[in-house]
Amino acid sequence: KTCEYGIKAVLYIAQQSLRQTRSKMSDIVQQIGSPEAFTGKVLGSLSRHGIVDSYTGPHG
Length: 60
Known about the structure:
Layout: H1 2-18, H2 25-32, H3 36-48
């Protein structure tokens, strides 16, 4: 499931970036149907490996 959610998240983020839109965690979770805590861990790993960029805060 980790790989599946990771791929789905990256694809969703890529689609949103084509629209010049940042993806919020809540939107990603809703769109790919994954648990929020687990998705956070997956995205954290993807960020550490340079696959996605991560920003914190109200505009992150």
